[in-house]
Inverse folding.
């Protein structure tokens, strides 16, 4: 039987290989939003593996009662955000202004649903995921990983906003004036 630590390392390596594969184009362009997102994904993967043992322990503890709503919000935002990008954003492989995943190559600015209030529902989802995982078992190491993921996601969003301004022009700048980055009415 594989020891739990060895299993975590194996899962981290395999997860990292997958993340590297998905991020391969972005990793070649140091100033792309995907470059920073890669490191945020890595921090979240490490955080998940750090707290995997206690995921369902003590379900009514204060930290679990914080964790579960954050994870539910994360799930909602990723599903809702992807749906809107696909249906309204009209992704097209013809958009080639930066190394992007296919779903990111939107040709129409999405400003409805969650996008009416926040510019980055998918990154917001990752932010809520990171904090939800952190609250499974708060620790100094977990806090460091969570703060790193938060800073990296903010950097990812800032770089993507510059890319969006180049593609969508003044319409995106106006959109930025009326929305928050990650959390409606807050940030």
């Amino acid at each position: 039987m594989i020891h739990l630590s060895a299993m975590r390392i194996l899962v981290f390596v395999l997860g990292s290989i997958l993340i590297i594969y998905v991020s391969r184009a972005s990793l070649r362009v140091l100033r792309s939003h995907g470059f920073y997102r890669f490191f945020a994904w890595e921090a979240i993967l490490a955080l998940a593996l750090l707290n995997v043992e206690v995921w369902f322990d003590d379900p009514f503890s204060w930290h679990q009662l914080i964790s579960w709503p954050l994870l539910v919000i994360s799930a909602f935002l990723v599903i809702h955000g992807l749906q809107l990008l696909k249906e309204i954003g009209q992704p097209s492989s013809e958009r080639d202004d930066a190394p992007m995943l296919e779903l990111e190559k939107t040709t129409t600015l999405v400003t409805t649903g969650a996008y009416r209030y926040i510019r980055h529902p998918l990154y917001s989802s990752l932010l809520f995921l990171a904090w939800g995982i952190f609250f499974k078992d708060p620790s100094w190491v977990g806090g460091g990983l969570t703060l790193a993921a938060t800073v990296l996601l903010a950097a990812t969003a800032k770089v993507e906003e510059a890319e969006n301004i180049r593609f969508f022009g003044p319409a995106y700048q106006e959109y930025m004036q009326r929305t928050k980055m990650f959390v409606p009415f807050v940030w």
